[in-house]
Amino acid sequence: MEAWVIWLIAAGVLLVLEMMTLTFYLLWISIGALVAAVVAWLVPDALLLQVIIGCVVALVLTAFTKPLARRLRTSKGYEDAGTELVGKQGVVVEAIEPGQYGIVKIGGDTWSATSTQSIGKDELVRVMKRGSTIIEVERWEEFI
């Protein structure tokens, strides 16, 4: 198998992983792998050049887009959709143990959740904090 095909497969896998994590970091690495695929197609024998150019592209994208994303989040009128989850009630679908993930259903959506408490299935919880894809919850009755 030629190197550009391997780079293209790596870019596709990273893109799929990015769609599951929504962090943007894997997107930049995916774009770096895509650029490395183009370099591999143009210069098939220069493996080191492919790796270096792919890494440089990923690093440049990470370095330049992080301040832009931060500026966007602090701009006037921007509201993170995840902040509206804080304070909402949910139902535990998969039990949560301290230090391990469980699953909580809020409205029609399910979220990976953590807690400092052991919370069983079908118990009501309140969302305390939201990370990128994981929420932190506590038992509902301790809150009332």
From TrEMBL:
Topological relation to the membrane, as annotated: Multi-pass membrane protein
InterPro entries with a match to the protein in the record: Membrane_assoc_protease (IPR052165), NA-bd_OB-fold (IPR012340), NfeD-like_C (IPR002810)
Annotated protein name in UniProt: NfeD family protein
Entry's Gene Ontology cellular component terms: plasma membrane
Primary localisation category: membrane
Keyword tRNA processing: no
Domain NfeD-like C-terminal: start-end pairs: 84-139
Record-annotated membrane-spanning stretches: 7-40, 46-64
Pfam family, one: NfeD
Keyword hit for Heme: no
Cellular compartment(s): Membrane
Organism from which the protein derives: Paenibacillus lentus
Keywords on record: Membrane, Transmembrane, Transmembrane helix
Alphabetized SUPFAM superfamilies for the sequence: NfeD domain-like (SSF141322)
Top-level taxon: Bacteria
